[in-house]
Specification:
single chain; 419 residues; Urease, subunit C, domain 1; TIM Barrel; eight-stranded mixed β-sheet; eight-stranded parallel β-sheet; globular; binds 3-[(4S)-2,5-dioxoimidazolidin-4-yl]propanoic acid; binds fe (iii) ion
């Protein structure tokens, strides 16, 4: 363990750690009766409390009272910035109209695009606020937000600017992804190649120039864009120095995963229809498999992602909300952990890894966050639970008693903590 002495900003003592660090050889990477020392936003030291250096002079000390400390949670796939409401579609689906059919009729994603185009930047921020606040209240310290409800330069930029503005207003890190190729806007009906051209030549260069996104996503699906169009976007993204990720195999096996791994995608997301070749491609790549049980649940999908094969191949699995107005209108990563277990058969420790260590990889930040380790960002959540499995096993409204974002203590909500 690193030796430390002297001043530090924050000492969190008397906690059990679920470090999620694969180098800590225990379930959840746990260290019982432990302490964490934080200075200038970075974890300086962690270990058993009885090994704490005695000359430590922390600016602030928190007694964790035997609660569990985890890495701050990371929601690595959201469409959180949007306007409007799609409850009527929920009704339509229950009346027997499929998601694809609604999209073909001009509803679905396009309905949100219309509402988002009509909104001002300020209105968009206001409408998105409660969703971000809900995530933060659950110990989320990093959120990925995609554009994709604009489908023209002006509105795509407005969405990314709203995400940037939200990051300035809240104690949360926001990773922005450009998803201009989400669906074909009616202005380009029958001219998908032309739209992809616009995405590549008119939108992407501006997004890159204004540093409004660090990665680029595409919806590769028979109701959206084909492999060739997807590859054009990936090629352009690569030329501009942006990372890529993909909505892949959600409604059919389009083989997007194989393409994405060739472009060293950060993640491929959804994967209900992922075939064996896709699993093989992932096995030989650095790409994360991101599972989105909220969309599976809302669409009443019956085909499961091939979890056993992913697990057997050692492919890192992330879990995210896919927070969006159509197929996953829910702002709870804790619920996703639970559904990851109940619907997809993950273990609670896989679920926690899915919203910490593997989610960090899915946003390309695995060298800085997602585990509790010296040298990593001090993004942490303290939970009033007896066992880390509770984070996936129960939905009794437990919130973190404390969240630390970049070394700053954000909330201290339970009464015992305030005493
Ligand atoms: N797949 C999804 O689940 C979201 N986008 C996508 O490509 C849903 C988008 C929506 O229905 O609004
Ligand atoms: Fe999505």
């Amino acid at each position: 363990m690193t030796k430390i002495t002297g001043n530090c900003d924050l000492l969190i003592n008397n906690v059990h750690l679920a470090t999620m660090d694969p180098d800590v050889d225990s379930h959840y990477g746990e260290i019982l009766n432990a302490a964490v020392v934080i200075h200038e936003g970075i974890i300086q030291w962690l270990g058993s409390s009885d090994q704490l250096p005695d000359n430590l002079q922390p600016e602030k000390t928190i007694n964790g009272q035997g609660q569990w400390l985890t890495p701050g949670l990371i929601d690595c796939h959201t469409h959180l910035v949007y306007a409007g409401d799609r409850s009527r579609e929920f009704e339509q689906r229950l009346e027997g109209v499929s998601y694809s059919e609604i999209a073909r009729q001009g509803g679905g994603i396009m309905s949100t695009v219309n509402a988002t185009r009509q909104c001002s930047l300020d209105q968009l921020i206001e409408q998105s606020r409660p969703r971000l606040e809900a995530l933060i209240s659950e110990g989320v310290t990093t959120v990925e937000i995609k554009s994709g409800y604009g489908l023209n330069l002006e509105t795509e930029l407005k969405i990314l600017k709203a995400a940037r503005e939200l990051e300035q207003q809240y104690p949360v890190r926001i990773e922005k992804t450009f998803l201009g190729a989400h669906t074909l806007p009616p202005e380009y009906s029958g001219k998908a190649d032309e739209y992809i051209q616009t995405v590549c030549e008119e939108m992407l260069p501006v997004v890159a120039e204004e540093k409004l996104a660090s990665s680029v996503d595409v919806f590769c699906e028979n109701i959206a864009f084909n492999l060739q169009q997807t590859e054009q976007v990936f090629q352009k993204a690569k030329n501009l120095g942006l990372r890529v990720k993909l909505h892949a195999e959600q409604l059919s096996d389009s083989q997007g995963t194989q393409l994405a791994t060739r472009y060293k995608a950060l993640s491929v997301d959804h994967l209900e229809y992922l075939g064996d070749e896709g699993v093989n491609a992932l096995e030989n790549s650095t790409t994360v498999a991101t599972l989105l049980p909220g969309a599976f649940y809302f669409l009443r999908e019956t085909r499961l992602p091939p979890i056993d094969k992913l697990r057997a191949s050692g492919i890192p699995m992330a879990l995210a909300t896919d927070l969006n107005p159509g197929t996953s209108p829910l702002a709870s990563l804790r619920l996703m952990m639970n559904m990851g277990c109940t619907l997809f058969g993950l273990t609670p420790s896989e679920a926690l890894a899915g919203v910490t260590r593997n989610a960090a990889r899915a946003v390309g930040l695995q060298d800085k966050m997602g585990i509790i380790r010296a040298g990593y960002q001090a993004d942490l959540a303290l939970w009033p639970v007896q066992n880390p499995a509770s984070l996936a096993a129960t939905l009794n409204g437990e919130k973190p008693s404390l969240t630390v974002f970049e070394g700053r203590v954000l909330q201290s909500m339970t009464r015992s903590m305030n005493r």
